[in-house]
Fold:
Amino acid sequence: MGGFYPETENVLSPNTGGGYFFAEYMVDAISKVFQYDYEGNLVREVELPGVGSASGFGGKKEEKEFYFSFTNYNTPGSSYKYDVETGQYEQYWKPEIDFNPDDYESKQVFYTSKDGTKVPMIITHKKGIELNGKNPTILYGYGGFNVSLTPSFSIVNAVWMEQGGVYAVPNLRGGGEYGKKWHNAGIKTKKQNVFDDFIAAAEYLIDNQYTSKEYLAIRGGSNGGLLVGATMTQRPDLMQVALPAVGVMDMLRYHTFTAGAGWAYDYGTSEESEEMFNYLKGYSPVHNVKEGTAYPATLVTTGDHDDRVVPAHSFKFAAELQEKQAGDNPTLIRIETNAGHGAGTPVSKTIEQYADIFGFTLYNMGFEELPNQSVMKEFKG
Structure:
């Protein structure tokens, strides 16, 4: 009869290999891996290559070597060969891309939201950047449907960081990073917590001189598009650029279109009760664009064939902004034709889309040329 290892409050994914148990926990949205023998004794914590997401750690009982994979915001998904007896491992495979992870750093910080809740955020950027408040920064969030934003590599974000950009991802309530309680703290009449967590993340980045209002962009898609829409209508003074993608913007009627009814568990619906109607109306982006307010430079993006979040959400939100924008910032909408909610978009379209998004973002932060041009000139010269 084997032993057991003690229960913890963290989300667990267990596996076996080489005659050992491997317990992979999600701790503050990042992987921690512990190796136990069959009696339940801790053999070691596996020292992972960085702050990120690991998986694998499984094999047959007699195999003394197996493979695991690791990725984070500055490490492309790579495979490592692990020796179960010594705990030593070596990189076995990495993708061939022109990006050097060693030039970048990714670190986790904790900040305090409006109601005192501690929220983790991972900030990634080039090593040696100056914290002078002038770094172009994208703050990316989701915050809903029990989805956990664990660290992973993206070429799009690598391009942003190569230009000297900062990429920050907070793990907002509504996600699954700390299990069910964390999810439930960001649904229905608690949805405002999610927006407060995002606003507090922006304030942390500004207070700690990573960036300033003039160099901050907020970005999110789908439920994250709602996050951006609600945040920019509640705090238009906080950011220079807003990038809501395929967002849920009409909270009073979302449940009447395509898949919308299935989101009622997270959002509640306007038909439920007068209280729920008023709560939704209180933050619904389409219903909270105010006449005479200066909004950040906004690029709403959607696909004309999106049958998950119908494009009417984005059309209405962009129309409200264009009618009521009091400042000089542009409020534009970019509609990809013959495209849906984002999955399966061909690389050529993705390149065009992000060229537009990053170009719009940097231009509205005051850059006349790419921030990294000086580096490119030195490199060429």
